[in-house]
Structures are given as C-alpha cells and as structure tokens.
Specification:
The complex is a heterodimer of chains A (247) and B (460). In chain A, helix 11 packs across helix 12. Chain A has 13 helices and eight strands. Chain A has 247 residues and is an alpha/beta fold. Chain A is globular and about 50 Å long. Chain B is of the alpha/beta class. Among the domains of chain B are: 266 residues, 3-Layer(aba) Sandwich (Rossmann fold), CATH 3.40.50.10420; 52 residues, no CATH class. Chain B has 22 helices and ten strands. In chain B, the strands form two sheets. Chain B has a six-stranded parallel beta sheet, with helices on both faces. Chain B has a four-stranded mixed beta sheet with strand order 8-5-6-9. In chain B, a hairpin with a 4-residue loop joins strand 5 and strand 6. In chain B, helix 3 packs across helix 12, helix 9 crosses helix 10 and helix 16 runs parallel beside helix 18. The longest helix of chain B has 21 residues. The chains are: A alpha/beta (247), B alpha/beta (460). Chains A and B meet through helix 1, helix 2, helix 3, helix 4 and helix 8 of A and helix 1, helix 2, helix 15, helix 17 and helix 18 of B. The complex binds iron/sulfur cluster. The site of iron/sulfur cluster has 15 residues of chain B, from helix 14. Iron/sulfur cluster (SF4) binds next to helix 14 of chain B.
Chain lengths: 247, 460
C-alpha cells in the first residue's frame, strides 16, 4: 500500500510537527509513505468563496501530484473534505473520481482502512477536550451528528481512548463550530472571534488542559483567541498525541 | 424590495455583538436551548429520520406537480364557499387585500403572524392607506411596536431582552419600566390589545399548510391567536404562498409531527387550526401568492428551498445567526434559510449574505425537510463570484495572508492560493493594513523549519 502524504500549506509552514507526527505514525504501522514535494493546495480557499475559476488550477495540480498513490492521507479534516466533497471545478474523469474517493483524513484512515486499535507507545497524562471540526463531523462523518438521530460514535475519541493516562472531557457544546471557517475568520471577523471566544470559554469552564483535534486550522484560530486572552490552554493535533510527539 | 443598497451583514452583526448588553449572550443561549430541546424531543421518535425523508419526498413531489395541486386546492376551496384570488407578486397581493377591505369598508385589522405578508410589506402598504393593523402574536406585536421586522421566523422578538421589552411597553402602553415580570407585562399587553381584537373589521392570517384534497388550510400557533383572528371579525383573508400545498390530509400528520419539534422542541404547537370555508354569514378569502416562487422553482440549484416549512431550526442551530441577531440580515428571512432565499428576491442587495456563514453545515443536517442549505450557500457564492459581487472584505483575507506568511513564505501562500492566483495577489495586497485576524487573536508564528525542509533533510 503506497500512501501519498497530503500536507496542507499552513501545516507545512506553521505546524510542521503535525506532518512529522503523521508521517512517523503511518510508518509505525508499516505503511509506505511518500511526500510529493510539488504539492501546493487543494483549492479550498478559492472553492469556499465560490471562485471556481481559480480553484480549478489548484485542483488539477493536486490530482497530478497524487495520482500515483493507492491512498492520499492528510492530517486535516477540512482540506480532505474539500477534496472528497467539493473538488468539482475540474472535469470529473475516472482518475479524478478515484483520487477523491481515496483521499482520507488521518483518523478515518487509521480507523477504517488500517483498522488499528493500539498505540502502545502513546502516553498523554492530561485532561483533554476533543475538537472534531465541522468538516470532520458533517463532511466526513468522523463522529455521529447531534442533528441526526443516529447511533452515537466518535472515531477520534475511540482512538484517543487507547492512549495511556489520557482523560477525555466533554464540553457543553462539543460539535458547535468554533468560527474558523476558512476565509470566514477574516471576512467575518466579529462573529468569528466571538465564536472562538465562546469555544475557549467552554474549555475553561471544563478546566481543559489540552484541546486535541484532527483539524489544525480550527486550532490555529482557537489558539489565537486563547493566547490573546492569555489562557493557559494548549492545542495539539491528534497525530501528535497518538504518535507520542513531537510536541 | 425597493432599495438596492447592499446589506452589510458583517457590520450589522458586529453592532449586535458589541452593543454592551446581554442581548447577544441571551440570544445565543435561548436559541441554543431550543436546539437542545429539539434534539431531546426528536430522539423520542424512533422513526424521526424516516419522517424527515418522507416529508422531503412529499414536498419534492408536490413542488414538481405544483400546478395540478394548486388547481385542485383552489377548486375545492371554492366549493366550500371560499373566494380564491391569485397574486403574481407582492404588489398584486397587497392590492387584492386592499380591494377586499375597501369593499367591506374595513378600517381595522387583527392579524396573525404571516411571513408572506411580511415579505409583501403589506403592513406599511395598508397603514399608508389608512388601515390600522394590530398584530395578535405577542412577539410580532412587540416588533410592530418597535417598528422592526421580525428577527426570527418563529420567535420574532427573540433578539430582545426582558428589559428591552419592559422599556418598550413602558413607552407604548404605559407599564412600569422597571418591571421584569414576564407574566404581568404579558397581561398588560393583552389588556391593551384585546379590545382592538374584539372590534376589528377583518382578520388576516397566513397558512402553514394548504391541502389540495380538501381545499382547507392549517395555521399553527402557540397563542391561539389565529383562531381569534379568524373567528372574531366577519371577514377572514388568508395569504398563502403557492409552495404551502400538500396533496392530502394524511400528509399533514408527517409535517405536524416535524414542525414544532424542529422549531421549539415541543411535540406540537398548542393550536393547530384547520380552516375549511367561511363561518355562516361571513366571508373567507384566500390569496394564493407567487411573489417569486415560480421563478425560484425554475432555478436548478435553488428550487429545493421551496420545501421549507419555516420551522426556524436552521436558525436556532446556526452559530453565526445566534451571534448576529436576525435583524442583521436586513431581510424578511434571516439566518441560513434567509441566506439562500433573500438573493432570489434581490441579488445585489443581498449579495453579501451568502458569505455570512462559516459553512459548518449544521443547518442542512437539522432541517426537517432536508434542504441542502450549506450547499446552496456555496452555490450562491459561485453566483456572486461569477458576477463579481464578492464582498470587499474578501480582499482583507489576502491582507491576512501577507501578515501570516511574511516573506519569503508569501510565495508559498501565493502557491497555496492556487498558482493561478499569482497574478492577482499584488493588487489585493494593497489591503494589508486591514488586519482583521489580529484584533481578537494572536498571530500564529511560522515554524523555523517547514515540514518540506525537514523532510528533504531527514527523509530524502
Ligand atoms: S430551511 Fe429547513 S430548518 Fe430552516 S426553516 Fe426551513 S424547514 Fe426549517
């Protein structure tokens, strides 16, 4: 099984440890992982704004970079959701459809494809809250939706439960959007910031030490809010916890 | 839909958030509680998801055979002595209402909440022609006295606090401005409005559902005010949007079970009133109104919005709506459903609304009739982008990009924006001073070494 590692731009530049943890974790499970160095972007910023013309270039490049892999794995729910659900600015050839179908967010890849159950090397003695992003929940169905009367499940939580010493807490509004929302966080700053502040308040109320998420972009926003408010709250990617670092 | 100045929903929302009172906090809290109550009551219905599928299918079927069912409805209503009118737009609707009222020499109206009449701006139209209207729904009456549009389709005054209301009632009906007692305030309003109800020359309602098979229509209220409106005066005029039709009485049960559970989390509205023809000695008129609906029905991407039963669940669940307040949208319909409906009325005026969403998707998932709201929001953005009507705030996004990815990473960001964007970036960077990320958030710091560099060093 050959996996192409999809590293979104902001992870490359701001959170390289997340990509390292993802790579190492996959390798621990014996997966052959390659990083196409010519990758840039999945087209999400343009696509989100309805700018199909400019999204098309990024989408075509994505497909060119990742066409030779059995699976494409990215440690980022919203970017994966973009590929899986919205990458339609380019012609939907058989190849494009295959690429979209085989692109996975890390947690679902571990759960559904590798079907791993143990992380014997992982230990995290902290009180955490899980932030599954909206893209992960409603786009990729990583967790049951509170809007749906369906059996309850949470793939991220099921994996994290295997980590030694971890204490998982549930906040009041676990699946409420944190207000990141891509360019929404700047175009709609007042509402976005308020949503982030409410999210951080919810963590503080539950005395959370670490927020763990499969989506670093939401954490970037939440971390920005928490730092501005000088909160003692840490944010890490689920790959870092499952791989036991790097932090 | 007169003015074409763009609604600046971001600025309006900011005002609601920063007004320095409890409004935003309580608005968010109360509506969130409604959403939680909805979850609890829905979870008690084992066939809830099947009900939603069924409701969506019934609506889809009806909308794709709308002409047939409308004719059937009108025919059956007429058989029962109802006078049926057809209005192609708001203007025609209002003119018909006025004509009926004038024929009866009716000067005062008692009115039960109708979003369609709001949409037609019927209130101001009639008042300008010397007709006095009294809203019979408490929330709607509060809005009427405030001179504001309803801010929520089910809870029209939900953006107001108890002190706002005490203040308003003190001004308008002379109650104690310091009273925070909902019960006594309510009672004062009742004492003030009841005489107006009793003396009204005509009653006006909307309809939640209209049934083709019987020609009857159904109004759901929690205050019984539609019954008052319809039963006191000798004349009843109902404004019904053409999309409200259901084929059969047996379809109704599906929607009644979904409506109030989705709206407020209660099993049913307190009153589900069926109207089948006029009382003896009185007249009943129905105005079947299009006002853009058939145009919407022809829009390939957007016609599904006609399935809407106006429960407001999408508004209650929407984290952006809860923090913005409904009036921020500057339109009859606010929240997620408003975002997709309003541009069908005026693309320019409401061009910025589709951007007022974090696209979390909760609206689509909560909607009892499975309207793909989030997808339609995206589709509207595509429409706006193709017509060069993206909000200017988007340029700020590029400013943020510059702040966050200072040299030399700006080039990487440019690549991120999709290579093709390269040529447009320099222009957009003019807006770097408007750094809206940093107001309430610290900037993320760039790592000393990118993952790519680490990978080249360690793995290649
Ligand atoms: S769009 Fe759906 S959830 Fe929103 S008001 Fe209409 S029926 Fe209710």
């Amino acid at each position: 099984m050959k996996v192409g590692l999809f590293v979104p731009c902001y992870i490359d530049a701001i959170y390289p440890k997340v990509a390292i943890a993802t790579l190492e974790l996959l390798e621990k499970f014996g997966v052959e992982v390659e990083v196409p160095l010519e990758q840039t972007c999945c087209g999400q910023p343009m696509s989100n704004e309805g700018d199909q013309k400019h999204a098309a270039g990024a989408e075509a490049l994505f497909c060119k970079n990742f066409s030779k892999y059995d699976y494409i794995v990215g440690p980022a729910g919203s970017c994966v959701k973009q590929v899986r659900c919205h990458m339609d600015a380019i012609p939907q050839t058989e190849e494009v459809i295959r690429i979209r179908k085989n692109t996975f967010e890390l947690v679902e890849f571990l759960t559904d494809i590798l079907k791993v159950k143990d992380f014997p090397w992982a230990e995290f003695r902290h009180k955490i809250a899980i932030h599954n992003s909206c893209s992960s929940i409603r786009g990729l169905h990583l967790q049951s939706m509170s809007e749906w009367m369906e059996p309850r499940f949470n793939k991220t939580e099921e994996l994290l439960e295997q980590v030694k010493g971890i204490q998982i807490e549930h906040i009041d509004r676990p699946d409420e959007c944190c207000g990141f929302g891509g360019t929404f966080c700047v175009t709609d700053e007042p509402v976005s910031a308020k949503m982030g502040q409410d999210k951080v308040a919810d963590y503080m109320k539950h005395e959370i030490e670490y927020v763990v998420s499969p989506d670093m972009s939401c954490l970037m926003h939440q971390q920005g809010v928490a730092q501005k408010e000088k909160r003692n709250l840490q944010f890490v990617h689920v790959a870092q916890v499952l791989n036991n670092g790097p932090f | 839909m007169s003015s074409t100045t763009k609604v600046n929903v971001v600025e309006n929302a900011a005002k609601f958030i920063h007004q320095g009172t409890d409004n935003e906090f309580l608005h968010d809290k109360n509506l969130w509680n409604a959403r939680v109550k909805r979850d609890t009551t829905a979870s008690k219905i084992p066939e809830w998801e099947e009900l939603r599928d069924l409701a969506s299918q019934i609506k889809e079927h009806t909308l794709t055979h709308l002409d047939k069912y409308l004719e059937e409805f009108a025919e059956n209503a007429e058989k029962r002595g109802v006078i049926v009118h057809w209005a192609k737009d708001a203007e025609e609707h209002n003119a018909i209402v006025l004509e009926i009222l004038q024929k009866h020499n009716a000067k005062t109206i008692i009115k039960s909440k109708s979003m369609l009449q709001e949409e037609c701006e019927m209130g101001p139209y009639l008042e300008a022609r010397g007709i006095t209207i009294t809203e019979s729904d408490l929330g709607e009456r509060i809005q009427q006295l405030s001179g504001e549009a309803p801010s929520h389709i089910v809870m029209p005054a939900i953006h107001k606090t108890m002190s706002d209301i005490a203040q308003l009632f003190a001004e308008k009906i002379g109650t104690d401005p310091n009273s925070r007692d909902a019960k006594s305030l309510n009672e004062s309003m009742r004492n003030n409005a009841r005489p107006k109800f009793l003396q009204a020359d005509a009653g006006m309602t909307g309809a939640n559902f209209a049934i083709a098979e019987t020609g009857s229509f159904v109004v759901c209220t929690n205050e019984g005010n539609a019954d008052l409106t319809a039963s006191l005066p000798p004349l009843h005029i109902a404004s019904i949007g053409i999309e409200k039709i259901l084929p059969k009485v047996e379809d109704l049960g599906v929607f009644i079970r979904l409506l109030s559970r989705s709206a407020l989390g209660t099993p049913a509205t307190q009153y589900t009133s069926h109207f089948t023809g006029p009382r003896e000695g009185t007249e009943m008129h129905i105005i079947l109104t299009d006002n853009g609906r058939s145009h919407r029905l022809g829009l390939e991407k957007f016609w599904h919005s006609l399935k809407c039963i106006r429960c407001g669940a999408c508004m209650n669940t929407c984290p952006v709506y809860r923090r913005s307040g409904g009036l921020a949208y500057g339109a009859t319909y606010s929240g997620p459903i408003g975002i997709i409906l309003d541009p069908t009325f005026d693309e320019t005026k409401y061009s910025e609304l589709p951007y007022h969403s974090s696209l979390c998707g909760s609206c689509s998932e909560v909607c009892p009739v499975h309207i793909n709201i989030a997808e339609q929001i995206m589709d509207w953005r595509k429409v706006m982008a193709s017509k060069d009507m993206m909000p200017s705030g988007l340029k700020v996004a590029f400013g943020m990009a510059n702040q966050m990815f200072k040299h030399p990473s700006i080039f990487r960001m440019a690549m991120t924006m999709g290579r093709l964007a390269l040529e447009i970036i320099p222009n957009k960077l003019i807006y770097i001073d408007a750094n809206s990320w940093g107001k309430n958030r610290e900037m993320p710091t760039l790592a000393k070494e990118t993952f790519r560099d680490w990978y080249k060093k360690n793995k290649k």
